[in-house]
Structure formats: C-alpha cells, structure tokens
Design a protein that fits this description.
alpha+beta, 6-stranded antiparallel sheet, 5-stranded antiparallel sheet, 17 helices
Amino acid sequence: MRMPQEDMVCAVEPASSALERARAEAAEVRLRLLVEAGRLLGDPLDGEEAVGAVAQLAVEAFADWCAVDFLDAHGALRRLTVRRAGPERGARDAAVEACTPERVRPSALTEVVRSGRALLVTGLGPRRVDAAEPMDGGGSLLVVPLRTRHQCVGALSLVRGPARAGFTEADRMLAEELAGRAGLVLDTARLLRESRRALTAAQRQVARLRARGEVDRLLAEAGLDLPTVLEVIVHRVSEGVGDGCVLHLVGEAGFLEPVLLHHPDPEARALLAGTVHARRQRLGEGLHGGVALRGEPVRLPDMDAERARAAGTLPEYLPYLERYGAQSLVVVPLVARRRVFGSLGVVRDVAGGHGPHDEDEVRLLGCVAERAALAIADARTHAVAIEGMRQRDDFLSVAGHELEAPLSALRLQVQLLARMAREVTLPPDLAQRVARAERSSERLGSLVNALLDAGRITSGRLRLEREEVDLAALARDTVGRMAEAFGRGGCEVRLAADAETTGRWDRARLEQVLGHLLSNAARHGRGRPVEVRVEPAARERVRLVVKDQGQGIAPGDRPRLFERFGRAGPEPRSQGLGLGLWISREIVDAHGGAIHVQSAPGEGATFTVELPRD
C-alpha cells in the first residue's frame, strides 16, 4: 500500500526540522564552549592553570579524557595536565585509559607535533550495549596540534570511551579551535616568563653594577689608607651579601691572618672574633687557606654544625654554626696583579629570609673582592712609599743637622782666610783659589740650609716670624748682596721697586724666596739682563716679578717645577738638590700667597709671587 504524496511530505518536514534543531543546538553548545574557553584563557599570566581549566571544560563537554603536552626549552614534550570526566574509577576508567595515545600509538604525539596535522582514530574498543539502549561506539582518540603564531608547540589529546560515539569532523574542528587558543596562551605565557627572567637578570645586573659602583665610590673616598680601606670592604660586604664578613690577609711566613671581621649583631661578632682570630692558617689549610692557594671561590649553600664536623675543614666556624644553625658560606680569593693578598668570607643565616647565596651573589662578591684586592695593593704600595719618604726625610733632616755645625765652623775659617787674602798681596792663582773656596763654602751652606728647611716643611715645623716689611727695600738689599754672583754670570739686573709695598711678612723667609728666584735667573739667564719688579696688586696684595731671558721651560716640565726635587728637563750639569722652588712655594703658601711661572722654550721664564699685605 502506497503512502499518499501529501503524507510523505508531512513526515519529511518534522524529521528535517528535528535535524536542523539538533545542528543548531550542537552549534550553540560549541559556541558556548568556545566562549567559556576564551574566558578561561583570557589571563596569560597563569597560562598552565588556564589550559588545565580548558581541558576540564573539554572532558565535561564532549570527551572522557583530555591531556595537554607542551614542548619545553629542550624540545621535549612535557605533560602539563591530564583531566578525566567524572570521579569514578574501575572498569569504565580502564576502558578509557586503553584509548589514550600512549596505549593506542606511542608515537602519536610526536607525529602530530612534527606534521602539524590532527590524528583521529576510531573503533578502539569492543561493541558495547548500554542498559537502556544499544550504542554503536567502540572508543576513539583525537590528537590535534597546539599552534602558535609560527610553529607547533605541543598537542591536545582527547579520548572517548567505548560506551560513547566516536569523534566526528565537527569535534575535530572544535578541538583544533580549542588547541589553537590554548597554544597561543601557552606561548604568550612562555614569552612573559622569558621576559620576566630577562627583566630579573637585568635588574640583578643593575644591582651588581650599582653595588660595584658603591664599593668603588667608598674605596675612592677611603683613599690609600689601608685600615680605612679594610673597614669599607667588610662593612659593605656584610651589608650587601651576608650577615657576617671575615677578611684574611697573607702575612709573614705564608700564614693567613684574620685582620678584620664585621657582623651587625654584637654577640655574633664576638663569637666569630673569638674563634676566627684564635686560628692562623697556612696557605692551603682550612677553608680560607684553600681558597687563597687555589684562587677559586667556594660556595657552601647549606652548612650546619654536623656537616662542618664531618668535613673537618671549618673549625673556625664550628662554634658559630652550633650557636646559630645552618649557614650559607662563601669564600672568595683576594687576587690582584697575579698576587694573592688573602681571602674574603661571608656567612648568612639560611633561615633568615634571604636563603643561600646564589651564583649572582657569588659573582658580585668576586667583583668586590677583585676591587678590594686592587685597593689593598695600592694602599700597601702607598704605605711603603710613604714610609720610604719618611725615612728619606728623616735622613735629610739628620744629615742637615749633623753637617750644620762643622760647616759653620768651616765657613767662618774660609771667610777669615778670604778677608786676610784681600788685605795682603797674594799671587793671582792663590787669590783665585781662596775666592773659589769661599764660594764653595757658601754653596755648601745653602745646600745644608735647604736640607734643614725640607725637614721642617715635611714635619710641619715651618714657622713664620711676621713683622712689618717693605718688600721693595728687601728686594734692593737682596739684589745688592747678590751683585757679585750676577757679575760672575755676566747678567745685568734691572730693578724697578719704587712703589710703597709694605706688609706683615717673615723677612728672612722672603729673602730666601727672592734669593732662590734670583739664583735661578742667574743660572739659566744665558748672561742676558734679568728684570725684577716689586709693585702693588689688586685686593690689598703685593706682586714680586723676576723675569729672565734664558732658554725657557717646556710646557710638560712646568707642573713638576715646584715639586720636591723637581727640575725642568734633563739637566745633568744643574747644581742644587731641586728643592729651591719647592721651598719657595711652601713659604709663599704659608704667607697665604701664590707663586706661578709663565714660560715658553727659547723665551725665558717669568716667576710671579703675590702676597697679601696682612
């Protein structure tokens, strides 16, 4: 019996409407799923947790099992999460596990990641019949790639057990959409983590540079005073990278001497001092001795009393460890210019909030130790130089005093002999010899006086006897007294000293200054005229100028001209000790004045002294 055409149309229309409704409902479910997944993946700061929530959403919506695998920094797949539908276990759970990638095809994940194409496998289990109605399923596996902007970075695996219908193409497209979003989130989270690591590394580098700069500044302020340098080192290290700091220096006979330590807690400082200072170590012995000998740092991030006793190399720290518990210890060598000066050790409470020292702190401590070693080397070199100069000055002072008395007697005898020679007629050659002896004694007296003045100046014993002095009259007297010396050199002295130029000065010391300048002009003036001027200057000051027309002074020689034992250029025939201009500068400075020189090669030299009237 045939159904009328009208009845057939009526039957098809409800079936078509039902199919459309089913498709619409499925599309709505997928849309809600994608919307919810987008919400969960909206915070890339915690990407792994968000991906885990999406996996849970997937098993609740259209799968029994879901796993997410992600390529780590070494290119190996690392499982981020596994989620299952329902808390029950047993036969059903075992059937689902039998459909996972590891059980179905161990290489499935690698194949999907390498190819970038999804894998769909169905019919993985026996035909199952539900208690209510038969279900033609058999279990299925769906693996889709996790894609980022440029590459495949992992895989999303979904499993349906034998009791459910297999995955469809629509499920594959939905899974790929979820995987694409999850991949972007994971990649973004990875980039954020790398950025954070880079930022942290940059911040640590800035902190290291700042700490190194601070150490450099403090060491520069400490100068070349060794005790101050050592204090700066231990205090800065104690504040920056540890609770306590111990500084050892190599002493006599190769022993490592603990010279300084610091700890903010007085009780801990006393405990360290009582144990560390009680032990002397040779190079190679103990923790500090071994570091100093090998020249390499040692880091013990978690050292307690039991481990210290077992190691047997930390006797100096054992009482401290017994009292304060586990500590992080770092010891670095103090090495500069291929020479070991000692070691620098820091100790920090592991449970005190900072934890063990990390590699960045060890590197920072190494940089500080390097700069500290250089500062110690410079301070020691400076101390040796200062001691050498002190001994030299002491010798010059003693030599000057020892020579003064016999030389004074000799000069009196020579002067008496010269006076007698002038009163009687002597052969010309004998008269010349007497004159030369008189000049030599005067020269020797000047040298001894220079030695004595150098000793007074360096020891701070230069005293001024101030009185009312007319500088113009003093210049006339000094030039007149030195007329014979200028005559021997063939130099004419042109004196301009007519203005009123009085002030409160030390007459003998200013005569000494003018005598040095005139002697210098006579010696280097090449027999040409020497100009001497005394004149008022601005701001209640008086100016003394001595100008010669000699060979001049090179620019590079002028800075050391007023230094002790300073000379202008190589002058092997030059007389004197090189102290005259230095003594002159010290005398002028003591009066509150200034002395300087203007010169150029071949144009002579002009020395100018300015003195305040009071």
